[in-house]
């Protein structure tokens, strides 16, 4: 299945292929603050449409993830890791996050 989504203002748009069986609720300092529920997909099954300079990146700590966001509206859409993308399912069009099981992840310990 193809899932499409993006930020609030529409400047950052993406699509991902796969089935959402569960999401990860990470308690690290950034995920807990932005309230992200994450679904990981292979980087080859994820595509960002031309966001140009509107898409920013932020990395912290060990810098293993690049947290991506819209510079215009501030919405954090996804994070890029080594060969995978963690998509904030709250940014997927037409998806009700309350209907997706969430698995707790202790990101503070990583």
> Could you give the order of strands across the largest sheet?
4-9-8-7-6
Number of E strands:
10
Could you state the oligomeric state of the chains shown?
A: single chain
Give the second-level CATH assignment, the architecture: Beta Complex
Could you give the distance between the termini? 31 Å
Number of domains: 1
Give the C-level CATH assignment: Mainly Beta
CATH topology: Metal Binding Protein, Guanine Nucleotide Exchange Factor, Chain A
Work out the strand percent.
35-45%
Q: Can you give the helix content as a percent range?
A: under 10%
For the report, how would you describe the main beta sheet?
5 strands, antiparallel
- Tally of individual helices: 1
Domain CENP-V/GFA: 3-106
GO molecular function: carbon-sulfur lyase activity; metal ion binding
Keywords: Metal-binding, Zinc
Pfam families: GFA
Write the layout of secondary structure elements.
Elements: E1 2-6, E2 13-17, E3 23-26, H1 29-34, E4 38-42, E5 46-48, E6 55-58, E7 66-70, E8 76-80, E9 84-88, E10 102-105
Parallel strand pairs: 3-10
Antiparallel strand pairs: 1-2, 2-5, 4-9, 6-7, 7-8, 8-9
């Amino acid at each position: 299945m193809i899932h499409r989504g993006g930020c609030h203002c529409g400047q950052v748009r993406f699509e991902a292929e796969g089935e959402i069986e569960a999401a990860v609720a990470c308690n690290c300092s950034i995920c807990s603050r932005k309230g992200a529920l994450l679904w990981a997909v292979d980087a080859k099954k994820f595509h960002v449409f031309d966001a140009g300079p509107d898409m920013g990146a932020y990395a912290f700590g060990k810098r293993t993830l690049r947290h991506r966001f819209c510079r215009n509206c501030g919405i954090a859409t996804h994070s890029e890791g080594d060969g995978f993308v963690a998509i904030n399912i709250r940014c997927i069009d037409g998806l009700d996050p309350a209907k997706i099981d969430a698995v707790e992840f202790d990101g503070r310990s990583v």
